Amino acid sequence: MRKINLSGKPAVASVFILLAIGLSGCLSLVPGYHVYDEFTNTHRYTLTESESNSEYGSDIGEADIKCSRLVTANSESVAFYFSIERETNSFGLEPKGFMKANGKQFEIQLSDIFDEERSRERTTITKDSTATGKQRKTISTTHQNWIVTNFVVPVTPEMLAAIRSGRDMMFRFYFGPDMATYKLSKITTLMYRLLDQDPRKK
How far apart are CA 16 and CA 27, in angstroms? Predict the structure, then answer.
């Protein structure tokens, strides 16, 4: 896999505290996991994860992934939110992809697709001595550009059933000739607890 070199980019931290994994309320220890929105009377449950593209030699890089479950008095929904880094010379995302869970494959339609162009300029100053003992200062500047593609994967009841009964989950997306495959680990481990939380039963 070709990893996009974004050294110095602020990391998106995904903190999962698993010390109390055997306790029914352990997910409450995950920062920001459960938020109640009093304006919409909605309970929001969110898990986050960062995964590398497992396809070798691809121009498509790491993905930041959020799994969001919204619960209201009368309904609930689950969706995955992806932000994927890619090279500026790569092709755009195709609107169809695949999800696989518990050995079952699902064709998925991606929604709300949009790209962000990002750039960074870094200046490096190097000092050394010449043969005559004089100090020499060298200034070099590098400019880096990349694209972040954002989109949403709505989850159907059939997909949820497979996620509940399985221990593996992966997504496959297509960017022209490049494939991007992400195998989820942290979200998969905690997903069943996210789905079992029901504030309406309190």
Answer: 9
